[in-house]
Structure formats: structure tokens, C-alpha cells
Amino acid sequence: MTATTNTNIRELARVLLAQDIRGLPIVNEAGEVVGVVTRGDILRALVNYAPLELWL
Question: Residue 22 and residue 30: Cα distance in Å, rounded?
């Protein structure tokens, strides 16, 4: 299972939780792995960039 550089962060989170996996390889158009997104990456993004309304 992989995701692309254009995959929405919410979809990444859904897959990680639904499949109970800790990370997902990210591939480019050629199918080459260009990175990995982890649950921690998504949590960091939430803490640092989420709208304040989420915390109320």
C-alpha cells in the first residue's frame, strides 16, 4: 500500500488508522518512493497547523 505526493492528509490518516499501520510510503509519478508519512507526522501537522477551532 502506498500514497502519492497528491494524497490528501485526511485520506492518509484514514488509511493509517483503518489498516492499523504506523507509516505509508509516498511515491512519485514514476512509482519511486520519495518519502514516508507516519502517524507522528500527521500529529505534528495537526498540532502546528490545524485551525484553532479543532481544539475547542
Answer: 24
Q: How far is CA 13 from the centre of its chain?
A: 5
Q: Which residue has the cell 507526522?
A: 41
For the residues of 7-47, what is the DSSP string, one character each? --HHHHHHHHHHTT-SEEEEE-TTS-EEEEEEHHHHHHHHH
C-alpha span between 38 and 12 (Å, rounded) = 9
**pLDDT at position 48:** 85
Q: What is the mean pLDDT of each run of 10 residues along the chain (56 residues)?
A: 93 96 97 97 87 63
Closest CA to 54 of 6, 41, 43, 14: 43
